[in-house]
Amino acid sequence: MKILIETKRLLLRKITLDDKEELFKLHSNSDVQKYTGEPLVESLEEMEQAIKTRINDYENYGYGRWATFLKNGMHFVGWAGLAYLPEFDEIDLGYRFSPQYWGMGFATEASQAILTYGFDKLELRQIIAIAMKENKASIKVMEKVGMEFDKFAPYEPGGEDVVWYWCDKKLIIKNKHH
User: Fold this and answer.
1) Considering the entire predicted model, what is its pTM?
2) At what angle do helices 106-116 and 136-144 cross, to 10 degrees?
3) Going from the N-terminus, what domains does the chain have, and what CATH number goes with each?
4) Are 132 and 153 in contact (CB under 8 A)?
5) Among 16, 2, 11, 4, CA closest to 70
6) What is d(CA 75, CA 106) in angstroms, rounded to the nearest whole number?
7) What distance in Å separates the CA atoms of residue 49 and residue 6, rounded to the nearest whole number?
8) Residues paired with residue 127 on neighbouring β-strands, in sequence order
């Protein structure tokens, strides 16, 4: 399996149908899904459909959400990556990790590498990130990797306001030096 991104502790590669059990465990965990605005995944079939969508993203856009593993022992920790949001014409940085790996800096480590990959390899102009206001840990990651607050606005028309952050390559370089 081709590794797309390697950090000090993590390896990121495309998600495949072989990841369905691990992803199902992740997406059927109420603690994990709590701040996502998404319902719990209820079946392996449902997970399989979601993975097929991810595989289409790789083919359509050249990027997507990537399965994330500990380098040491190749343990699945979750996923992190980019997703094109056609309804906003924006590219979103996102991550979701199993609770036993929370608070270890993996989201920050993966996000920094993904932003670098997005700007240097994919030559993206801008990347955003969106979180529920209550998701303090996720917001902290966005700030740590050099993203800046953009606005409070709903993700879906009529929905609750969520927090929107953004960055471009210049902003990331500027914030690395401060």
Assistant:
1) 0.94
2) 40
3) 11-176 (3.40.630.30)
4) no
5) 11
6) 13
7) 27
8) 167
Residue 165 bridge partners (DSSP): 129, 149
Token pair listed for 158: 């009529």
- Rounded alpha-carbon distances, angstroms, from residue 129 to 145, 155, 176: 11, 11, 18
Backbone φ, ψ for residue 167 (5° rounding):
-160, 160
In degrees and rounded to multiples of 5, residue 63 shows phi and psi of -155, 175
Q: Which residues contact 20 (CB under 8 A, 6 or more apart)?
A: 44, 47, 48, 51
CA distances from residue 141 to 59, 137, 164, 175 in whole angstroms, order as listed:
28, 6, 13, 14
pLDDT in tens, 73-127: 889 999 999 999 999 999 999 999 999 999 999 999 999 999 999 999 999 999 9
Tokens of 161: 């306001």
Enter the tokens of residue 121. 């390899």
